[in-house]
Each structure stands twice: as C-alpha cells, then as structure tokens.
Predict the 3D structure of the following.
Amino acid sequence: MLKNGRQTAYHIPALLNESIDGLDIRPSGLYVDVTFGGGGHSREILRRLNPDGRLVAFDQDEDAIRNAIDDPRFLFVRSNFRFLKNFLRYHGIEEVDGILADLGVSSHHFDDAGRGFSFRFAGDLDMRMNRGAQKSAADILNEYPEEKIREVFAKYGELKNAHRIAASVVSYRQTRRFSTTDDLLAVLEPFAFKDREKKILAQAFQALRIEVNGEMEALTEMLSQALEVLKPGGRLSVISYHSLEDRLVKNFFKTGNFAGEIIKDFYGNWQTPFELVNRKVIVPVMEEQEENPRSRSAKLRIAEKKK
C-alpha cells in the first residue's frame, strides 16, 4: 500500500527523496537498489526512469519477493548484496549508473514477533535476514564461547557491561538453552537500568543481529564491489542507522578504504576514488521524524565515482 509515495504496509522508506535525488538519476540509466525490502526506494527510482531505464533490486529475505514490482524495467535478485558483482555479471551487467543502499532493518522485520528482531515481542530468538541461513541468535548464545560472546556485545552493541553480560549468558545456558527473546531478556534484565532500559536492550539485540547476519562484513564487501561496478560519474547513495555502519561508509567515501587512512600522491593530493556529494551528513527533517519515528537515526551519505 502506498501513501504519499511511501510504502506503508511493509516499510516506510527513510530519506526517500533525498536519497534518490542524490543519485542524480539519468532517465535511461541502469540502477541498483541493494536493499529492496518493501520496494519504496525502488518505486521512486522507477518513477524517474524512462522506458529505456533499468533497475536491479537485491534482497536476501524471501518475504521481500512478495513486494516485487511488475515492470519490464525491473529485475529482482534474491541474494545478499555482498554478491552484488557476481549477480550483475550473471545478468550480463558490467557497469551501472548508480547504487542505493538503505541499511536499516525493515519495519516488517521488527514488527514480526516470529523473527526475533525486537525486544518488544515474545518470539523465537532467530534474527536471520535469510531464513535459509544456518546460524540463529539462539545458536550464538548457546554455542559461542564466553570470550566471543563478550566480543559480539562489546564490538557490535558497544555495551560497557559486555563482559558481565557474556558471563551471565554462559551461566544461564548451564541450566537451559536459549530459545526465545524472553530467555535473552531474562539475562539482560539486571543490566537494563530503568533510565536507559530501551537503549541497552536495543544495543544488545543489535549486536546479535549484526553477528547473525554478518552485516559488517557484507557491507564492506558490497561497498568495495560497488566501487568496481559504478561507471565513472556514477553515484552511491547510502543510508545507515548506527555508528558502526556510518563510520565504515564515511571512511570509504572519504579515503577509499575502511580504516579511513589518507593516502597522498607525490604532490600531497589525496588519493581517493570518490568526490563527496554531501560533505555534511543528511538526516531526516523533523516532519519526517514525527511521521516515521524509525527514521530518527537515519544518516545519508552520497558519493560520486571520479571520472
């Protein structure tokens, strides 16, 4: 269902116009939406293409297939975007004019209790974007050694009590296996101080979700391949939702590497493959944040591959 050009039933796309405007769409161009989801961004891209334009959309979640667009210019690829280059080549595509990535988890996932993405609902402790994948959040908590669990919560959740939470996880599983979100909440409860309860729970769930889906590794692989398949002058528009993602995107756009290391030529000029389209990160205006509260943490960065 669309309302004012936005997808309402499955997911409301954040920074819709800003992210598509940033692609500087050529009507007859070839574009890729690597995070199709509810299709809100894809529909807006198609709206700006003429009959000769084409759009390829990626999504690894089988639920997203239901939102596929019946349009001869549209191709849906059910795959993780870390395989961007391989699937484009499989379909005979070597170069594209622009790539869009909306890295956030769809509202559909957060609101589906059976997927286990949210601490708001009782359900299976799953968190797999691709339900064909082997490792679930419950598997991580039941099988990872204590030190690795600590690393997941510290690195991906930025939780100060990661070592104590990991110890509690190991203690809990000595008497029963993790199976549901309630099991995880039982462990997290002593660490979820009332004034910061939602933030701490969100950080813990985020950490497990990132680990389950290998999100940071997939992001670096996708960005590296995006640089390879973009035409000179082509643009990459990326919306991120937490500091770990945004830092990677910012570093890559600024320096061409994920560590943010500045490489200079003999004359002291920066050696970077991109020109920044927006030097200051773009965030939703207050009206959008009120209409779509989940957009509040969205940050948009746009870069153009040097000609």
In short: Confidence is low (pLDDT under 50) at residues 1-8. The CA atoms of residues 201 and 300 lie 25 Å apart. The longest helix spans residues 197-213.
